[in-house]
């Protein structure tokens, strides 16, 4: 009876006696024994005795098999009672089959068995069981050997730095990959078995090349290698080399097998070598020497800079480049630094092969071996000839004007210090003339900056012809020039006369005219003269004195010259005092607005001009002519104008809320600086909003100077404010420098004829003609006209006859303080 026959037999009843059973099972390969319902042995076959190493069946029959056959694990741990194989059979009639049982022999050794337990029935009642077991030691040993072999193979694979893998082309997924992949790339090993995982983690820049090579190799039926980058889980690239074989089925590629090899370090090393090679062939010259200064290697840049080929210098000392520009102390210091700091850097003059000297920026580094001894010196140098030339150019540009090539303010200051020092030492006099071109900005803005630059160059050339060889002509600002005469001798009176004559020659020379862009331009200049030494040898003081005299000359009508005097200094100090006090006046409510009424032909009130006055706490009432020019020159006109505008609008708003009838509009003068300040439109809008005032009640009076400063920008600002409703009037009309043609483009409402044309009416024919022309022109252009400075009935009659629209002046009323204006001019509503 074979094993399979026994396993197929199910004993539900026990019709045979024990001897018959033993005859059936004694010769089978399995050990068999029977137990009753209590687990005691009823029989056993010879195979069981042999496997359990008992001499006779009497040693087992009648004994409890659980106590004789110890069901324990090989490590000696207790075997659970409910795990005992016969129990389920005796209890429930279950047939039990297990492949992982262990039995203990009589001598205490254990062995693995495959185990079967079958119930025995008598009259449908379980009365015992038949147990069969098979010694599977050889099978387990083979399995263990296989397991150990596989484990050794696994450990071998996982201990290598490569990652074996197998890839199914049909499903686009790995069927095997070494766990080493997780450590190499960072992804969990389970991720590698997802479809298209490989392709999706190839570096985007390499993906097309990888796919192309794989496809080509599969068609050619050959193994292939490919290098590319994979992306780690961290996102960083990893260079890999793939050795891939193609497995075919039915002559079709179906599987790829290969290994990943991490070659990142090799790639980095190659990159470092490449960079080192590229660095060596940089634009900077490199020469390597041994410790005794013998040249070992040079790069191409060395040959380009020095003219020497490598084969001409290798083996020779670096002294081949040495010039005679440095002494022994210089080289001693260099070698001292190299020995102590292992590095030296500095500027050196060297010699090319053709003998030409050139400056270089040199860095020498000592290379030390493992013992700390110097093995080589690496010298890197750059020809800095161009840089030296550029530095010289920068020094020149720092001292000379780029446009005219004349000395600039810095060089003039240095020359002036030297001249004043020499004048004191040798007891002679000198002179400094400061020139400011009158109205140059108007010419520059009208003709353009290129024309302005050309004019300045022409002025420089003409002025240079007027001075002597030892004198200095400098350009110290946009349209400012200076002439320094360092030595005029000891006679102060003669020196003064010479300086004045030179100033006169300068004025005449510039007045001769310059042809710029086919247009003849006549220039005038204001000149300030300061003689030295005059109690100071300070260059800054002399420049200020000449500037003070020049400012006074310009204020006196321009196109003339003045010598500095102590009285001028007093005037300057007075101006500075006014500047300081005016700023305080604006901040401390010392200002007050006066109002002068404006009338039409029927003596009806049509407007009121707000005029600022300064109530000084000590000096009393200061008229505007004494502080407005200072405000213009110092920039205080911005804050002053803002205060005037705000107070005028506030006053008009109060009139509207009072019982008095306000004039149709209130006019405020706006300076050029104020008009062109950033945010002027926003300032007007804000003022109107804060005072709840309609824009058509505000009139802004601007001069022609405002218009010609930047015509395009001016028109844009006027138009934006006029769109709001603001009324515009050109003040002091007829006294400016521009033609009347610009009026066609200006979105203005009114012209105000300057008082200088009114004061001699009607007797002065020229003034009468000008006034008549202005009124007629304005009427033709749809503009209203107001005449200021009307003081007599005759003037009023003339203006009415010429159809002038409005009038303002002492004939009607002087400017009045607010309370008097309200009492005398305004009428109840």
Tag the structure with descriptive keywords.
34 strands; 829 residues; disordered N terminus; 30 helices; elongated; 10-stranded mixed β-sheet
Oligomer: single chain
Radius of gyration computed on alpha carbons: 57 Å
How does the overall form come out from the CA principal axes? elongated
- Structural class given helices, strands, pairing? alpha+beta
Please mark out the parts with pLDDT under 50 across 5 or more consecutive residues, or reply none. 1-16
In what range is the share of β-strand residues? 25-35%
Strand tally: 34
In DSSP terms, counting alpha (H) and pi (I) runs of 4 or more, how many helices? Answer: 30
pLDDT averaged residue by residue:
85
In whole angstroms, the N-to-C terminal distance is: 142 Å
Overview of this structure, please?
With 829 residues, the protein is of the alpha+beta class. It has 30 helices and 34 strands. The strands form seven sheets. Strands 23, 24, 25, 27, 28, 29, 30, 31, 32 and 33 form a ten-stranded mixed beta sheet that branches. Strand 13 (343-351) and strand 14 (357-368) form a beta hairpin. Helix 16 (440-447) packs across helix 17 (449-464). The longest helix is centred in the N-terminal third of the chain and has 23 residues, at 137-159.
